[in-house]
Amino acid sequence: MTVAPRENVSEHGGALLGDFFQRVHGSLDVQSLIRSAAGFFQAHSGDPSIGPGEWEGYLEAFSSALARLRPVGGTFLSAPRIPVDSGVQDPLRVATAILRENERLFQSMSESTSETFWLAEIGSRMRIVYIAPSCKNLLGVAPEEICLTPRKWFSIVHKADRQRVWEFYKNIRAGRLESHEYRILLPDGSIRWVRNEGWPVRKEGGGAEGMTGVLQDVTDRQRLKEELIQISEHEQRHLLEELKDGICQHLAGTSLVCKVLYNKMAARNDPIAQDVARICTLLTTAVAETRQLSESLGAVTTEEGGLAAALARLAYRISSLFSISCIFRCGEDAAVADEITATHLYGIAKEAVNNAIRGGGAGKIRIRLRRREERIVLTVSDNGTGFEEPSGKNAGIGLRMMDYRATESGGWLKVERGKRGGTVVTCTVPACL
Q1: Do residues 284 and 276 touch, judged by C-beta distance below 8 A?
Q2: SS3 of residue 188 by DSSP
Q3: This prediction's pTM
Q4: From start to end of 237-382, where are the E strands?
Q5: What are the tens digits of pLDDT across the range 186-213?
Q6: What's the confidence (pLDDT) of residue 76?
Q7: What does the DSSP assignment read for 46-67?
Q8: Which of 228, 303, 386, 400 is deepest in the core (most CB within 10 A)?
């Protein structure tokens, strides 16, 4: 298809062509595109001032706009080049043929993959303008229901994950590539995990005029991950039992025997008694440190005072071991009744404190637990060197683990630089799941 040379386009035809370009390239979905093109063709099909060569320019613009609306894995399908006879009198028929060929190609690609493509426009609010038919199997909702009911796209997201999903789309709108895993609620009440990868659709000037992405079912992978973590936690509990009932008891017994020996040697004024006394002191210290280790690795239980008591012990232990200022503050009505959630929050606090000391060289650490309306907020701040993006193949494991714990608790994690330097780690979870 060849666009007519500029000198062969009349002033009237050039103005119409510019208007047509603006119409079709301003469309964000196929339906609005074909409406714009059909309306123009019907209005001007009998215009004698538009020559056959100029019609080719309109069809070229239509083909280009249609290709722009076909996202596949981050690229776009090319519209087929259908030859146009110079004597064509029905450009709408040719445009429809182009559309049908693109629909056939895109439908074939959509049906041959388990992934679900989606396209949204950005206005005063986000609206899904296209989603692949495979969404019926993945989300349990028909494509037309999602496109015609904007709230449906978010209503199927698990309540505990909605804030994170809003942040996901907010970041794409700001021009960033994003990927996120979250839960959706199926019509039968069951839960499915999906991975959503999205990227902005950019204007010629560089700004985002829409967004597109791919949904994928990751439920089986998520279940496998949960099983592996459960196995790891089972092994950890077994290790704790060995520490408490085995090593701690053995060290405590050895310490008692050593004290008895010291008393006997001291009664005889044996010069070696002082050496035995030092061994007794070392054994006592080993017993205390082993107990502290078992407490730091263990789950948070209501019998031991719950999360607030565990965080207070953590702050005291950090202050004692590293000779730094580590202070814990707990607000009113900030109790976490669920022991699993409490254990996750404790793990996040412990990881954040360790990062502040080892990676940030912090001298002051503040741990705060408070309730904000229907949410529990845990904050760990420090005066260290600040947070840096991890690099390397195995970097960021601690950060990913904190994010996983936040997700498992139905909340979200935020890591940022403090206003006065250092790092601020904030985890927000529902007060009652």
Answers
A1: no
A2: coil
A3: 0.52
A4: 325-330, 364-372, 375-382
A5: 999 999 999 999 888 877 666 677 888 8
A6: 36
A7: T-TTS-HHHHHHHHHHHHHHHH
A8: 386
Whole-angstrom distance, CA of residue 306 vs CA of residue 335: 8
Sign of CA dihedral 416, 408, 160, 431: negative
Is the pLDDT assigned to residue 5 strictly greater than 80? no
Can you name the CATH fold of 305-433? Heat Shock Protein 90 (3.30.565)
Q: Residue 263 pLDDT > 50, yes or no?
A: yes
What b/e readout covers 321-352, taking b as 16+ CB neighbours within 10 angstroms? eeebebebebeeebebebeebbbbbbbbbbbb
pLDDT of residue 376: 92
Q: Return the beta strands (E) in 277-399 as ranges.
A: 325-330, 364-372, 375-382
Distances (CA, A) of 262 to 24, 283, 376: 94, 13, 52
- 219 CB contacts (<8 Å, ≥6 apart)? 192, 193, 194
Confidence class for position 1, pLDDT limits 50, 70, 90: very low
SS3 of 418, please?
coil
**Phi-psi sector, 389: left (phi>0), alpha (psi -120 to 50), beta:** beta
Query: CA 283 to CA 289: how far, in whole Å?
Result: 10
